[in-house]
Write a structure and sequence with these properties.
alpha/beta, Gyrase A, domain 2, Four Helix Bundle (Hemerythrin (Met), subunit A), Rossmann fold, six-stranded mixed sheet, 17 helices, binds guanosine-5'-triphosphate, binds magnesium ion
């Protein structure tokens, strides 16, 4: 494939001590050399070497820089690639880009370097997507997930799945080829059990998306409870920032307030909500509707009570009401008993209450907040997660859902004894879909798989 030469600033926009400009394509070395006074020194520089060079515009020195030269195919993009490390002034960065453009480079489109890496076979599509995730990762866990995918663990799993489907197709095609000779190569029950195994494998991946996705974007934790119990105070404590307005007036929080915070390597998204109560106030009512939406999308609920001002019976009643309104089966509920500073000692009926995880705290005085952090992270087993392949990418998830549909169609087809060639269409579609994940769509593979099982002459 022939590509033109692209360039762009690859470090963050703005001022920095240094900045990196990348140039990739057939003419990367030549174009860069036009910016230097001593062109030949750079043209003859061996691959993978760094050299200090001065960049000029006509006779005017623009900057003293370091350049690294990579030669195709041994570079990130698989093309000739140059990295200029210049001083991070906006003027210098812009000037160098301007000179590169003047000498025949083109400004790269977003992601174009990685796209070339994929098109030149340096990375598959899922790995290229992992690079974007890696750059965006803000916590240990999202970093681990991205690294796993970049290392190719996810692609390997997809490829394994794909070859199993190829096997299924091969078995079915054999049946098709010899149907007229009345030879039964594979009985349908064997096909069905292979399909069942594959179905479970696919379901495992689609099911992992929910977890994979929340780990990437932050596990949503909703802080809920009656007005004035101290929800916003707790949010500020957890975020270590005065993020939400706190006041003694019940109904202070009208809209949800949310922000991310990383605890022990796991990223959480804390959502402070409007206090739950029956109210005539229209705006507050809207706020309470939003509270229910926040509860809906939360993985973990911190149900907050003012322990200095409530009885166990009242709390149990409130929880009963909530359990009617909310599907708690897939959520973890933690009770946060706040304002312990108002009490001389903790009431026994609360400390002996074993129905839920409960933390006794004072948000205002920052007492026992650590206990909440511990309860939150107990929920997540970091080591376990990093070893398994999780689906974290919405594009992959969409594709997997389509695959599930195709599997269901094949299952129905078996049950209704549909002709083999109709079933094969759906397996081919699954192979194409899996190929879409890693970026290698072809159908020749099925043929290859069939013929590799034949002996010559048959
Ligand atoms: N004594 C004591 N007061 C607290 C504590 N935590 C919060 N408060 C006070 O309780 C009042 C209400 O706090 P908020 O954080 O605004 O309560 P909220 O639950 O967000 O209230 P709404 O937004 O109205 O639903 C404020 O006056 C806080 O200073 C605590 O641990 N001890
Ligand atoms: Mg509040």
């Amino acid at each position: 494939m022939v590509f033109d030469t692209i360039c762009s600033i690859s470090s963050p926009q703005g001022i920095g001590a240094i900045s990196i400009i990348r140039i990739s394509g057939k003419k990367a070395v030549e174009i860069t050399s036009y910016l230097l006074q001593n062109r030949d020194d750079f043209l003859t520089l061996p691959a993978n070497f760094v050299k200090q060079v001065n960049i000029f515009e006509d006779d005017k020195l623009i900057d003293q820089t370091m350049v690294t030269k990579f030669v195709a195919p041994k570079s990130y993009t698989g093309e000739d690639l140059v990295e200029i490390t210049c001083h991070g002034s906006k003027f210098i960065q812009q000037k160098i880009i301007e000179l590169l453009l003047k000498n025949g480079a083109r400004l790269a489109k977003p992601g174009e370097f990685s796209m070339r890496a994929f098109l030149n076979g340096k990375l598959d599509l899922a790995q290229t997507e992992a690079i974007a995730d890696l750059i965006e990762s803000q916590s240990e866990i999202s970093h681990k997930l991205a690294i796993n995918q970049l290392k190719g663990n996810f692609s390997a799993r997809i490829k394994r799945l794909r070859s199993q489907f190829v096997e299924l197709a091969a078995l079915i095609e054999l049946e098709l080829d010899f149907s007229e000779e009345n030879v039964e190569f594979a009985d349908r029950s064997k096909l069905r059990s292979l399909l069942q195994t594959l179905k479970e494998e696919v379901a495992k991946l689609t099911d992992s998306f929910k977890l994979g996705n929340v780990l990437k974007t932050g596990i949503p934790v909703a802080i809920i409870g009656k007005p004035n119990v101290g929800k916003s105070t707790l949010l500020n404590c957890l975020l270590m920032d005065e993020r939400a307005i706190v006041s003694h007036i019940p109904g202070t929080t009208r809209d949800t307030v949310e922000d991310n915070f990383t605890i022990n390597g796991t990223n959480f998204r804390f959502i402070d909500t409007a206090g739950l109560r029956i109210t005539e106030d229209e705006i507050e009512t809207f706020g309470i509707e939003r509270t229910f939406k926040a509860i809906d999308k939360a993985e973990i609920i911190l149900y907050m009570i003012d322990i200095s001002d409530t009885s166990l019976e009242d709390v149990e009643k409130e929880l009963l009401f909530l359990e009617n309104e909310i599907d708690f089966i897939h959520k973890k509920l933690i009770i946060v008993a706040n304002k312990i500073d108002q009490l001389n000692e903790l009431p026994k009926h609360f400390t002996e209450w074993n129905d839920y995880d409960i933390a006794f705290i004072s948000a205002k005085r920052n007492v026992n907040i650590e206990e909440i952090r511990e309860l939150l992270t107990q929920h997540i087993d970091l080591h376990n997660i990093s070893d398994t392949t999780l689906l974290t990418n919405a594009r992959h998830y969409d594709i997997m859902l389509k695959i599930e549909q195709e599997i269901n169609t094949i299952e129905t087809g078996f049950a209704q004894k549909l002709p083999t060639d109709l079933i094969v269409i759906h397996i081919n579609s699954i192979l194409n879909l899996l190929g879409e994940i890693t970026g290698e769509i072809t159908n020749d593979e099925i043929l290859e798989a069939i013929f590799s099982r034949f002996c010559i002459g048959k």
